[in-house]
Design a protein that fits this description.
This protein is α/β, with parallel strands linked by helices. The chain contains nine helices and eight strands.
């Protein structure tokens, strides 16, 4: 069964980095539930963003919300400990970024964080069945990872539905997240397919009124 509570997760990839802490406070005050923290290495994906020192600085500045760290790096294992030390709450990895996925997910959980598994548009969801007991969050990419502001890939809804079926067989709570091109006019479709956590970057940070945008998303979700 789908989680009862929907979460909206603004992606700081689209925030103004010259005032990142303020931007995070602003979206949280506007009604966001968690913060999505995109880490890119210009190797696994064609972009370079931020690392664990930024997260550690945000924690030192008093930002204590749930930080949902999405590692788009390869190899990924070396950075997991650094993000655990930086107080990441959720750490999500791509199966293509590690030679031993079972071990990688185990290391995340043993470090005290929740473990997430990410599926690119062309990655089969069937892999989830092999590690379901080690996963706390499943992330379906509805764009190819690497850049914000991309158009939503509609076939991602089928992957969300497939993931939902597998998650519903699990004995533990697992959140189902979708990331890429999510806006007020398509968030309800994603929820209907089974998602309960919605990453939105440019749709929120590119708007003139964060609270109004998040409220519009919640209104759309209420219709499902």
């Amino acid at each position: 069964m789908k989680a009862a509570e929907n979460w909206i997760a603004p992606s700081i990839l689209s925030a103004d980095f010259s005032r990142l802490g303020e931007e995070i406070h602003d979206v949280l005050d506007a009604g966001a539930d968690i913060i999505h923290f995109d880490v890119m290495d210009n190797h696994y994906v064609p972009n370079l963003t931020i690392g664990p020192l930024v997260l550690k600085s945000l924690r030192k500045a008093g930002i204590d919300c749930t930080m949902d760290v999405h590692l788009m790096v390869k190899p990924v294992d070396r950075l997991i400990g650094d993000f655990i030390d930086a107080d990441a709450d959720i750490i999500s990895v791509h199966p293509e970024a590690t030679e031993h996925l079972h071990r990688t997910l185990s290391v995340i959980r043993e470090g005290g964080a929740k473990a997430g598994l990410v599926f690119n548009p062309a990655t089969p969801v069937t892999l989830l069945a092999e590690v379901l007991e080690l996963v706390d969050l499943v992330l379906i990419m509805s764009v190819n990872p690497g850049f914000g502001g991309q158009a939503f890939i509609p076939s991602a809804l089928n992957k969300v539905a497939q993931a939902r079926k597998l998650i519903d067989t699990a004995d533990q709570p697992i959140r189902l997240e979708i990331d890429g091109g999510i806006k007020a006019d398509n968030i309800a479709e994603a929820a209907a397919a089974g998602a309960d956590t919605f990453v939105a970057g440019s749709a929120i940070f590119g708007s003139s009124d964060y609270a109004a945008t998040i409220a519009a998303m919640r209104s759309a979700l209420a219709s499902t």
